[in-house]
């Protein structure tokens, strides 16, 4: 990595360019076209109604327009007790007839009782009949035959619809589970059963119903308070802007106040340790060593020993000395870092439009997520209805075989397995398309990751180009080109789509491997093979580190692409070696920037959070009348705090990109130029002052 020669015509990003990584660009466009084609194919074959609407035993949707089920939107299980059987876990389908109904039953009744009294109580028969198969009206048919052919359910139970399915209407009375205030019911087959049997069949529904009521309350809170939440986020936006603009005046002050605060606190700690050490002098037992008293669960015992306070004092002295030495030896680098932070604030002041660029990235990523989610749902719901034999006896040899509901009653199966039925099982198929659905889902996930990474890369390259054009303007702001952000975006799209796609591809491959490893880890949770778990853990850790490293390399490669317009590999290599030649500066700048921006995020989120807390708990008298009445005041409060943090993160990510870009430009400037008349520096006067007026060799500082 030799320093570059001076080029008097060099003006950063504003120079002639050519397209880079053309092959990758072509592949990227082909993949996008393929992705659109996959979406179209999935759209043709898939049917999201299969997720939205429940499906009856005939494979028809409940509530589907222009069918017999149009007004029957809820699924009713003939015998919900069967849903507690292990068959449900295997087939994910309850082995009982399922029917679409317009409303759930609201009373206990059995078929035996209703049939016996149908002549003198026809209203009961007509009510029960709506839960029988469509068209059934034969009260004279024997009960045994009706139940064998599953024309009607043996019993109905007071139920309520949940997720468009009828579930028993549970309530708890004095700690006892009841349905319509009853603890027992007749099952219509001559037995009296306990309500807890129903509870097992519809296991977990009570918890889900509770969660549903909480969900409704939270939704109500959002509906009432959304206006105030938006005001809170707007305040967060203004605070973030203010923080960034003021950084050019306060960066140094904030940093040094914090550092001297830390030194002061540690200094107080040393004094306190010495005071305790001196205070324990002559007290019996205080001269014992830690080794003498051994391991004690009560930590206070150790605080009675002089040795403990001596150890604390030595550790704190060590930390204090390290911090002071670092400040002495790295003072120049810290001053450069603070100057670059101030310079970044100044650059954003000249190119304010950059602060709102994250909105573009957010929209692009939102489009990617929406397209991926819709395609995934359509792929998952591709397929024709598949019918399988549901047998009541576990030994039926035809159980789980595919069947045709049209011809099922004429086959041998009904004779060999009495009571068996041909019911809808799931959506699938035997065609080539259906066999490769899992592969298509993987491809969908991979291209989604690629596109998201490309959107992020485009944002980084665009911002880098805008800030680089600021740095390489000799007279600031007079030489800054017109519309720097817009022209940088144009350059990135026109010339460097291939390079950005290449960087995004490498990252997407690593992320896909990480997703697969997470999936495997989730699948192997139950296994006791510790070696496999250990290996997976190591692989997950390695790929996490690799992803972090690649993100760092890519980010700096995009900055070099924005400045020089070279291809991805050359830019990544040059950025890496440039950073390695300035490795201490990189470390110092990174930590100083991270600290100040983290402080900024905490200030913004904390400030707005405290304000929101006082507002929603009616502690601000001026606005006490304006506060909406809420079920949970923490709902809008948490939303405001998290939202404020994200808003600050969006603005500060632009600032971090700005500082990184200016830093690379600054390193380039030092290696290209020497501050002489022939090779003047492009850096600002403040940076120039820190480096000193003398001519600097590229290796120094």
From TrEMBL:
Entry keyword Transport = yes
Indicate the transmembrane segments per the record. Answer: 21-44, 226-246, 253-271, 309-330, 350-374, 447-474, 495-517, 529-546, 595-616, 637-657
Q: Which reaction does it catalyse?
A: choline(out) + n H(+)(in) = choline(in) + n H(+)(out)
- Keywords assigned by UniProt, alphabetized: Antiport, Cell membrane, Glycoprotein, Membrane, Transmembrane, Transmembrane helix, Transport
Q: Which residues form the signal peptide?
A: none
Q: Does the keyword NADP apply?
A: no
What GO molecular function terms would the record report? Answer: antiporter activity
Its placement in the membrane is given as:
Multi-pass membrane protein
Q: Which GO terms describe its cellular component?
A: plasma membrane
Q: Where in the cell is it found?
A: Cell membrane
Query: What is this protein for, i.e. what is its function?
Result: Choline transporter. Choline/H+ antiporter.
The entry sums up its family as follows: Belongs to the CTL (choline transporter-like) family.
Q: Could you tell me what this protein is called? A: Choline transporter-like protein
User: What is the originating organism of this protein?
Assistant: Campylorhamphus procurvoides
